[in-house]
Amino acid sequence: MRPFAFLPALLLAGCSMAPAYRPAQAPVAAAYKEQVPGWAEAAPADAAPRGDWWTAFGDPVLDDLEARAATASPTIAAAVARYDQATAIARRANAEIFPEISGGGTISRERLSAGRPQSNGTRPKYTDKTIGGSFDWEIDLWGRLRDGARAGVLERQASAADLASARLSLQAAVASGYFALRGSDAEIALLRRTIDEFARAEKLTDDRHEGGIASGLDLGRAQTQLSGARADLSEALLDRAMLEHALAALIGESPSTFTIASAAMSARPIAAPVATPSQLLERRPDIAAAERRMAAANQRIGVARAAWFPALTLGLDGGWQTTSGDILTKANSFWALGPLSLLGPIFDAGRRTADVKRARGEFDEASAEYRGTVLGAFREVEDNLAAARELTSAERDQDAAAAAATRTGDLALTRYHDGASDYLEVVIAQTAALQAEREAIGVRVRRLQASVQLVRALGGGFDRTALAQKP
Questions:
Q1: What is the CATH code for 53-102+128-260+270-469?
Q2: Distance between CA atoms of residues 276 and 43, nearest Å
Q3: pLDDT digit string, tens, across residues 53-65
Q4: Virtual CA dihedral for 361, 363, 365, 367, nearest 10 degrees?
Q5: Phi first, then psi: what are they for 213, rounded to 5°?
Q6: Percentage helix, strand, coil, to 5, in the chain?
Q7: Could you report the per-residue pLDDT of 347-360, keeping only the tens digit for each?
Q8: CA trace torsion 135, 141, 142, 143 (10° rounding)
Q9: Which pTM value belongs to this model?
Q10: Residue 187 falls in which region: left (phi positive, over 0), alpha (psi -120 to 50) or beta
């Protein structure tokens, strides 16, 4: 149709008002300050699956918890729903570029007034039948619609990165919570063994007191020590229950029906391949999300700037109409081309200027948030690299301290049994031994959790073959 001959030229004339996109610059070092000898450099893969990295710990219970969390966690369900919303919004924004075509029909029974203008005094009745459609199109001369569509696509990509980040954070939270639970199991087992030892020592002191060998002061100290250990056990049992309840909530199950059997803590920390700082920008899904939102904000500047220019719209209507006989005949057809309207602003009291400034402010905010996300990512990696190094030494030294304290406690009890010392020496030695062993358990848990958090800080994306257990 000749009336549409000008449309290709109009489409080709379309442009974008968005500024040239330049991502914000964040300070990126050539290497991490905290380096761990022997750890390999990882390949960047921000869009890659995060990998079943937790299987490197070799714990079937943890594997099962992670699998259940992936399918039932309300956190992941909410992130998926947000991604679905972003996808729908992007599709709708893209649909704005294209014409809208609608069609339908009406039928009505009418009677005219005898007193109407130019009436001949009759009151005719008729049935009005109409079948037709309309074609409406805003021709995107200045790129407003296309910039909005691009912003929608970028927001969808950011939401996809948010989903990947939520999955990775959940996986890390489940693993960290699980190791805290196993640490609690180890502490409970230690306290139960200690209570048995304190009970035997209290019985020995009572027997010596009955025989006139030990003083009432020694007996009181032994009883105080035993009761204190029992109180510590009750608190440890409470802590374990709360950790179990927290895991249930993480994986989307009711704490009332969720139980994890007690077991020894057998897992060892794992070493994750360490990417260079520049590669970290590509691996971390939260960094990818922040960058996509920054790009979307840049496109919305174009949307705001395009509002300064006239909007060109085209309309077309057509169909069939009759009050009698067959409606679908040539004689009953009608069409109307137009209106072809060009409407632009003349005076808006500064509304469009304010919209542009707001869009630029949103871009500046997104840029600052991107830089903050990058710096936070570097901090997390450095923190966990430092933790991996220092906690390795701390665990070795704390294990040695616990072994020495245990030997001292045994020697003090022997000296007391032989009458070479009073019970205060035993109390001091055994209390120190218990504290040293509990601290050794705590350091072991922190090492495991630090290795989990390092995987998360590096963006995941590892499989079991890429990870190795550390001694």
A1: 1.20.1600.10
A2: 9
A3: 899 899 999 999 9
A4: -150
A5: -90, -40
A6: 60, 10, 25
A7: 889 999 999 999 99
A8: 60
A9: 0.83
A10: alpha
